[in-house]
Amino acid sequence: MTNDGVMSLGLCFDAPMQSWGIRSRGVIRDTMPEPTKSGVVGLIAAALGIDRSDDDALAELAQLRLAVRVDREGIMERDYHVTQNVPTTQGGGHRTVVSERYYLADALFLAVLEGDGQLLTKIAAAVQRPHWRLSFGRKAYVPARPLLTQGEGPVRRTAEEVLSEYGWLENSRQTRAWMMGEANRPGLRTVVECRLDEAGAEVRHDQPLSFAEGNRRFTSRTVRTSEVPLTDDMISAGEKLCS
Questions:
Q1: Dihedral sign, CA of 178, 181, 185, 188?
Q2: Which of 93, 94, 127, 235 could be stapled to 147 by a disulfide with Cβ–Cβ 3.0 to 4.6 Å?
Q3: According to the CATH classification, is domain 7-74+105-242 in 3.30.1700.10?
Q4: Residue 220: how many CB atoms within 10 A of its CB?
């Protein structure tokens, strides 16, 4: 993709626990290995103070293109939740329900939004002073550090350019020093929205249409999974971001 005046905004998603469900129904609550479009849009809507029943405002956010770079792969874990005194389907008694809830431990992502510069500027301001508390998939999964550092904002870059240039978000000095000495560094996995006819495109059913209570609706989008090399410049730039 060429840069024809397009703007992008990079956000840091860092937390001890994150959950990005895409098929969460009943007693099984799953998570994808990286942020979903519905999860990111929901987080931005909370920052802006958009009501969950405002489908028009949601549609404007959902038009933004999403690209994700995995700066640290999380470890998938599972919790058991027990709910007592749940009414039976016949209504004649109560039961205990055990649900399984999956989450990512110690994951770190660069989430890039591409689109209208004015909207991205509003988002950049909102995530620094959010209307409602921000969380990564569940209310208890709050950010470990700011989504933006002071002075950051939209840049005139495509999402792909940001993924390959933005400083590595890893804040462990030991890990950073070790990577600087590695001749054959692993690439960083990326998941980028793309056209349906692009090679390697895969369907994800996480494009939000409505978050209204009792009427949550989603449609499909397509993404391409690839990777970008972890360069010396990215490691050096990340040093400033994480200091």
A1: positive
A2: 127
A3: no
A4: 10
Kindly state the tokens that stand for 59: 């549609």
Tokens representing residue 206 in the block: 């996480």
- Answer whether 103's CB lies under 8 Å from 123's CB: no
Tens of pLDDT along the chain (243 residues) come to 545 679 999 999 999 999 998 876 666 778 999 999 999 999 999 999 999 999 999 999 999 999 999 999 999 998 876 666 667 666 666 766 667 888 999 999 999 999 999 999 999 999 999 999 999 999 999 999 999 976 789 999 999 999 999 999 999 989 988 998 888 889 999 999 999 999 999 999 999 999 998 888 999 999 999 999 999 999 998 887 776
Q: Side chain identity at 72, as an amino acid letter?
A: R
